[in-house]
């Protein structure tokens, strides 16, 4: 019977693991956040808001985007770490299972 190859996660050009679908979604959220950081001040200026208000909005959006990016990356690392750990099933009070695992008893 031929041996089955061990599964290896897909990697990008630099040898890093490819992002998971959740990681790709997080990247897209960050891209939209960065886009809004640039677009909102332009729209505010076009609508006649003062430069200070547009700059303040840009800085506020940039701060929120940076915090969201940090939290998303932390969540991804935690999820990857938890997915990598295998939880063994509970084996009972003393870790013995199955017939013959008990001490004592009758012997033939």
UniProtKB/TrEMBL annotation:
The keyword Transmembrane applies. Residues 1-25, 86-108 are annotated as: Disordered. Keywords: Membrane, Transmembrane, Transmembrane helix. It comes from the Bacteria. The chain crosses the membrane at residues 51-72. This is Uncharacterized protein.
């Amino acid at each position: 019977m031929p041996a089955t190859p061990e599964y290896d996660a897909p990697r990008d050009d630099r040898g890093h693991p490819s992002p998971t679908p959740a990681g790709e979604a997080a990247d897209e959220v960050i891209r939209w956040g960065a886009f809004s950081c640039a677009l909102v001040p332009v729209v505010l200026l076009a609508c006649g808001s003062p430069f200070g208000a547009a700059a303040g909005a840009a800085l506020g959006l940039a701060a929120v985007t940076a915090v969201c990016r940090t939290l998303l990356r932390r969540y991804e690392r935690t999820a990857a770490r938890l997915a990598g750990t295998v939880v063994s099933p509970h084996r009972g009070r003393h870790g013995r299972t199955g017939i013959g695992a008990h001490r004592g008893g009758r012997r033939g």
